[in-house]
């Protein structure tokens, strides 16, 4: 028999996740590059984009800057899953290493919170290129976010 | 009387600049975000973009990732101005600090070569937001490029 | 009955590890700060230092620069474990986030190779402060190394 | 005739500079590596160290980590020159590129404030190696500091 009692933790996160999705939907830049949310968990966000010519650099691969935009957002929303309701997120800085050509069927950018302080949150991120069953690590990121208390995200 | 003798240095750079512009025109991502080349000099490249809703983050400013894409390209093309003809440029890594909201009439991203080695080139970059006569520093970048000898850029 | 047949992989790494230890012993700076090698595995290096007043910043914690020196070396030697014999390692660049005061009985810096290319190697590193049984993450690092082929490390 | 009227701006900075020197003198790590303050101005700090075997990496040059420690401190004290009295400075993160072997008669690390916000300060830094009259750029840094209001530096 299935319990009808709801998990209060899941419920609390469902509200938080809706908040993150609403913020994401307002990012014109994520719409422009065609990014979508693949998964949200507390302290974790995965975003994906499908490579296409409009995202390319001069050799046809996805531009390092687009890869950076994707994983910066993944890190930022990983952070936002852990913020209080009445707070917005801004990127203070990030650093990215590009490891392999970004190409294939899909790019998956994952951000995860490593340290959540009261005002600063540090995340790491990875971007993989998926082609059929192959999966290649294409970028590594490390990021600092700031929590803007009293400035609601949406 | 105007001399008809051409400046060989300028001529050499004119060819190099044409090479850079050709590479830039192949970057679908720069077309997508609406970036254009403002200036090219040996070791220097300035790119601009006009803020619009499609480039925004959730609060309406230009997305940190778009700012990063712009200044990554400015740094990369600053580097390419100094490369030999038969070599391509790739970003190894970069780090960016976001200092102020990216908004206004125009974002101007400047990249300049600090150290040009045989295989690695290090650049710095700055992004300013221009609004009327006001000019605000919105981002600082430091970047490592790799020279791909024997792999023509275009 | 114990086999007398040696594991060729282990033997190969033993030689490599001896090479790394020899290089480490030549780093005056590691001697000055009192660092020692805790563990070496292929693609991994752990170094430790005991906090003392000579390593401090102004509030008595271990100086961010000393933490950086330790984890830079851990990443570099993680990389060197994967290099061919006739090659030296140099740090191209690294980025470090400081997350908590570096204090306690021991600082343990771990470096691990994420991507080993022919000429560039990318590592990540973490530093934990150990106090009794408590273990606190104090720093996160991301690093690019260059393989100097034909320039023996020692 | 020389005016005896004091410059109030200089006086104010003299107190601030004394504060910075007092903090610097408490950094055991700067004493250990033999660093000294060469110059302090509002938003600027220059530190120097003389290369010696105790600061070396495996090839005899000054260790990247020592170069990093020096320029991290230069950036931090550049920031502290601009802080209010009742505030301490901590490094949030920094990124450094190593450009050339750190050797010669003296290493000079300069840090300068690029953006001083209320809670975060961003600096850039450069390290030059001086040998006779030659001066070689050996490292580039970009750094984020946090202002700890209400926690006096000394």
Structural commentary:
Four copies of one chain form a homotetramer. Chain A has 154 residues and is α+β, with helices and mostly antiparallel strands. Helices cover 27% and strands 41% of the residues of chain A. Chain A contains three helices and six strands; from the N terminus they run ααββαββββ. Chain A has helices at 8-25, 28-33, 64-80, and strands spanning 36-41, 44-49, 87-98, 106-116, 120-131, 134-149. A six-stranded antiparallel β-sheet of chain A has the order 1-2-4-5-6-3. Chains in contact: A-B, A-C, A-D, B-C, B-D, C-D. β3 (87-98) of chain C pairs antiparallel with β3 of chain D.
Question: How do you describe this structure in short?
Answer:
4 copies of one chain form a homotetramer. The first copy, chain A, is an alpha+beta fold and 154 residues long.
Strand order of the largest sheet of chain A: 1-2-4-5-6-3
What is the oligomeric state here?
Answer: homotetramer
Distance between the termini of chain A: 40 Å
The pair of chains with the biggest contact is: A-B, 41 and 41 residues
Q: What does the overall shape of chain A look like?
A: globular
Number of strands of chain A: 6
Structural class of chain A: alpha+beta
> What is the mean pLDDT of chain A?
92
Q: What fraction of residues of chain A sit in β-strands?
A: 35-45%
Rg of chain A (C-alpha, Å): 16 Å
The total count of helices of chain A amounts to 3
Helix content of chain A: 25-40%
Main β sheet profile of chain A: 6 strands, antiparallel
**What series of H and E elements makes up the topology of chain A?**
HHEEHEEEE
Question: Residue ranges of chain A: pLDDT <50 for 5 or more in a row?
Answer: none
